[in-house]
Design goal:
This protein is 27% helix and 25% strand. The longest helix is centred in the N-terminal third of the chain and has 18 residues, at 92-109. The protein contains 17 helices and 29 strands. The protein has 2 domains: 17-231 and 270-299, P-loop containing nucleotide triphosphate hydrolases (Rossmann fold); 339-595, Nucleotidyltransferase, domain 5 (2-Layer Sandwich). It is of the alpha/beta class.
Length: 628
């Protein structure tokens, strides 16, 4: 009769509170699971348990426990409601990591799961890394980049983790999420759970799914006035010191109604009394949005430090903060600036000279059929930049004289405002046209000063510049052992950054002694630049398009045919990245400025020698005393 007795009527959160144990190697707080530790998890798990809910969407920041929610869901179904289960990770390597580092410790340390999954050391094949059998069902763990795994078997419970990191297509089969969903159509009681931190607005799978849900957000009552509110980053405030510097250690959350400050402990206590409220009617899909402010494992001091660091680091680091800490999509500023507005922002300095704030020079070369266009940019602290020269070398890649003139440019000098002489530190040249000719020239010039580059579209890249990789033409059918060093750049990232910098407004002059305080990244244009060059610089805009499979993505499209100025700017910017300018400390910038006797871009004393971007590396030799 005990066998025939039905299991207790438990939700996933009830089961987790009674049975789940956190493992020491997979959790900072090992021991018995407590849903009350992060109360917002209860509503999400209960929605997955709800028979009326077919799809659950979780758009969340990091550090909110979304992986543990999935583990609880899998454990509940193995123990209480056996079914065919599939967990889809971005790649097969991620799938193996999840299985080994997250699922296996849970299955080992949760008593009610012991014995239901075969011992991993057994030889019956019921407990493999990516496929595990249990009474009444099985667990399959696959990568979204493996179409065979997604289309292999019917599934009742589908868990898709980090869907915004999935490839656009699983091989030639199409969107991996839709491909996986097709495995569930035969089950009337199917359950689909989509989880991810978001990426770019207009190209985020999780955002699109959340907008189709009932859009639930967690409302928290103020401990002082009782006003319920959604916790937002705008209500986190911190003090400044006497010198105007920020003090993130003073960060507190302030009530949106009474402005009462909450310490971390007060905030966590208030969150335990919160509740989920939907913004849209329920249609079978429950959507949940969370940011890092709700997490009981994150202090506001750490968030404030991360924000200040991200803001100082530019678009790429700020995008990471918005995606992973705020759980929001990042809006790329892709609307083309007005070139006529830029006409009014031009500044006066002599052609071919470098203003005092410029501390090193890079160039971007765009190879065309009948010419090579080169723009020379100077860079200063905060990635301010000045257009120094625009050079058109007639002849094209088939003309040896054209390459000779480009070679001569590497040794050309420009006069700094301090009186020092400057040369190009790095020239980045595009390899998209006449690749072999570009490789041959770069190899001849040496890769210390020349960086061959290849542009790739798309924003979802770990870094805007990767490499170098050793590639080259072949000689006698054999690949060169140490050929040209090719750098790969995300052109979309640098185009968006350039347009963001072009929208910055110049500051007002407060006094002659202070000079003009330009914001970081400000793009200075000389008076000699003409309208055609400005039109080329603003020749593209960012639009959202749908591919053949109906999936939206962001794409740069030309507004006019010629865009060489924008391309050269992107290449010169990539050269600055390759040199490490994005990662230099304040001390490094001050060291560069000292070489020109320039203090904060306002000094006028003459430098005694040419500028050098990198210190000479001194080889250290240690001699062994072995055998005398």
């Amino acid at each position: 009769m005990a066998v025939l007795k039905p299991p207790p009527d438990l939700t996933i959160s009830d089961w987790a509170d009674q049975n789940r144990r956190l493992s020491s190697e997979a959790s900072a707080e090992p021991g018995q699971w407590r849903t009350s530790r992060a109360e917002y998890q209860r509503g999400i798990m209960d929605a997955i348990s709800d028979a009326a809910t077919e799809t659950v969407v979780i758009m969340s920041s990091a550090q909110c426990g979304k992986t543990e929610l999935q583990l609880c869901t899998v454990g509940y179904h193995i123990d209480q409601d056996p079914a065919p289960i599939m967990v889809v990770m971005p790649t097969e390597r991620d799938a193996e990591t999840w299985s080994k580092d997250r699922f296996s410790p849970m299955a080992r340390d949760t008593p009610c799961l012991q014995g239901k999954i075969a011992d991993p050391r057994s030889r019956d094949g019921n407990n493999k890394i990516l496929h595990k059998r249990f009474p009444g069902g099985h667990l399959t763990i696959v990568g979204a980049n493996a179409p065979s795994g997604l289309a292999s078997r019917p599934i009742r419970l589908l868990l898709c983790d980090e869907v915004d990191r999935y490839p656009f297509s699983a091989g030639a089969e199409g969107d991996p999420v839709n491909l996986a969903k097709k495995r569930t159509v035969t089950f009337w009681n199917r359950k689909i759970v989509l989880v991810s931190t978001p990426t770019n607005k207009g190209a985020s799978r999780i955002e699109a799914a959340f907008e189709e849900s009932d859009q639930r957000r967690f409302w928290v009552p103020c401990p002082k006035c009782g006003h319920e509110q959604i916790l937002t980053w705008g209500q986190v405030k911190w003090d400044k010191d006497e010198k105007g510097g920020y003090r993130p250690e003073t960060a507190l959350y302030h009530c949106a109604e009474c402005d009462a400050p909450w310490k971390d402990e007060t905030r966590w206590s208030a969150i335990s009394k919160g509740r989920w409220i939907a913004d849209a009617p329920f249609n079978g899909t429950a959507g949940f949005h969370l940011n890092e402010i709700y997490s009981p494992w994150v202090r506001l001091e750490a968030m404030a430090k991360a924000f200040l660091s991200a803001r100082a680091g530019g678009d790429e680091t700020m995008k990471t903060f918005v995606n992973t800490s705020l759980g929001e999509t990042w809006m790329e500023s892709g609307e083309a600036p007005d070139w006529q507005r830029l006409q009014g922002l031009k500044e006066d300095w002599r052609s071919g000279t470098v203003p005092s704030g410029g501390l090193f020079l890079t160039a971007g070369a765009d190879v065309q059929k009948d010419r090579i266009e080169v723009d020379v940019w100077a860079w200063g602290k905060g990635l301010q930049s000045w257009l120094i020269d625009h050079i058109v070398i007639e002849g094209g890649p088939g003309d040896q004289a054209c390459w000779q003139k480009l070679s001569d440019l590497l040794g050309r000098s420009w006069l700094h405002d301090s009186g020092a002489v400057m040369t190009l530190t790095k020239l980045a040249i595009d390899t998209g046209y006449e690749t072999a000719a570009v490789y041959a020239w770069a190899r001849q010039m040496g890769f210390g000063q020349v960086a061959p580059i290849k542009g790739l579209e798309g924003f979802n890249r770990a870094s805007p510049v990767t490499g170098p990789t050793y590639v080259d033409a072949t000689i006698g059918g054999k690949r060169l052992r140490r050929g040209a060093r090719l750098w790969t750049i995300a052109t979309s990232t640098f185009k968006a950054e350039t347009y963001r910098f072009l929208r910055l407004d110049p500051p007002e002059i407060t006094s002659p002694a202070d000079g003009e305080r330009f914001p970081p990244g400000f793009l200075h244009l000389p008076g000699w630049v003409d309208a055609e060059w400005l039109k080329q610089l603003t020749a593209e805009q960012l639009v959202t398009v749908k591919n053949k499979r109906g999936f939206a993505k962001l794409e740069w499209q030309k507004l006019r045919e010629r865009n060489e100025a924008l391309d050269c700017r992107v290449y010169a910017r990539a050269a600055a990245w390759i040199l490490g300018a994005d990662r230099w400390s304040d001390a490094r910038w001050e060291e560069l400025a000292a070489q020109f006797a320039v203090a904060d871009g306002r000094g006028t004393a003459s430098a005694t020698g040419p500028q050098s971007v990198r210190k000479a590396q001194v080889r250290r030799v240690a001699r062994s005393t072995y055998m005398g």
